[in-house]
Amino acid sequence: LYAREPAEATKAAKAQVHDLRAHYKNTYEVARSVKGLRLLKAIKYLQAVLEHKQIIPFRKYCNGIGRHAQAKHFKLTQGRWPSKPTTYILQLLKNLQTNSETKGLDIERCVVSHVQVNRAVQSRRRTYRAHGRITPYLSSNCHVEMFVTEKAKNVRKV
Fold first, then answer.
1. CA angle, 20 as apex, 19 and 24 as ends, to 5°?
2. Residue 119 above 90 pLDDT?
3. Helix ranges, 1-82 (H)
4. How distant, in Å, are the alpha carbons of 75, 88, 108 from that of 50?
5. What pTM does this model have?
């Protein structure tokens, strides 16, 4: 079940993942950096992030994030290269690519138009502390959904 549906369902392809074992805040920033890009450009961008050639700018959850010179490209100072969420979002984008191919969309004109990352139920473990105490050891999972829409060719005004 998606949070919203595309305006034209025939010109869009969807993909989602539930209970992703990656940190919510990092996944949010990775997914936000991809929104609005063309599909192939987004895939190339995330592959460059994994090689540390590009950076993921941290805009919302940026408390305690270090400053890096690569973030100047986005007119920001803070950024990171979160590998785990980046690989998951990259897999989701490749899934979107195959979904759009099977729908018969032109991949060159597909744009990532909707991205949503929600918090999922935290998986609980326990860690053993000194003096016989036990404290929770939670992982902050997330749900990710996105879809691409095929942009129309530019129509010249008469």
1. 100
2. yes
3. 24-34, 39-50
4. 21, 11, 23
5. 0.92
